[in-house]
Amino acid sequence: MDPQLILGFAVVSVSLALTPGADWAYAISSGLGGRKIAPAVGGLLGGYLIHTILIVAGLAALVIAMPQLLAGLTIAGAAYLLWLGISTTRSWRSAGYTTSDDADHPQPDNAGSFLRGLGTSGTNPKALLLYLALIPQFIDLNSGFPAPVQTGILGISHLLVSAVVYTGVAFGARRLLASRPSAARIVTLCSGIIMLLLGAMLLAEQIASFNAG
Does this model's pTM top 0.90? Predict the structure, then answer.
């Protein structure tokens, strides 16, 4: 693979991972939830792994042939973000660092944290579109590696970058906000609002597209 293409992809990948969005919002909320950072981040990464597998399997061609498939994914992702945003926003008054065995502030178990993370990134059509639009630009057709192999390598590379960033975001939220309940509540409320806004924007885009058609 061309070293310049690899370097270019690395710069873009890091920049995108550092851009706040729904994944950041969930990572922050997990950092304030006690012993669930690892499964929460693991769930987010699981979503990216699904996207990688799908594009390696040729989803791009399928989306071109069936644009309604992407519309369905977008609506499902928007609905999930709205649900997660409502859940997060409703919990803002009691936000703060707690351990998972705190009876007064019960937290989702590891499986629940993982599944929420998986749903956040796995059903996010923006993340899927990112993979579909970004990775093909860095495929070297003159390389000795087949295009599917290069696609998988680049997809996993972005996954690893995201693992570092989201883990840092989650632990940073825990460290900075654990002793600041008021700040934790504000950040939790903002995280929920971000999810709600992203979900609403996705739905609005589909409505506008439907009306235009």
Answer: no
213 vs 61, 65, 113, CA distance in Å?
22, 17, 39
Dihedral angle, C-alpha 49, 25, 90, 126, nearest 10 °:
-60
The pLDDT of residue 23 is above 60: yes
**Residue 95: predicted pLDDT:** 53
C-alpha to C-alpha distances, 90 to 15, 65, 109, 170, 173, nearest whole angstrom: 31, 40, 19, 20, 19
Q: Using CA atoms, how far apart are residues 181 and 164, in angstroms rounded to an integer?
A: 26
Distance CA(3)–CA(167), nearest Å, equals 28
For 210, counting Cβ atoms within 10 Å of its Cβ (0-12 exposed, 13-18 middle, 19+ buried), the class is exposed
Burial 171-188 (b: 16+ CB within 10 A, else e): eebbeebbeeeeebbebb
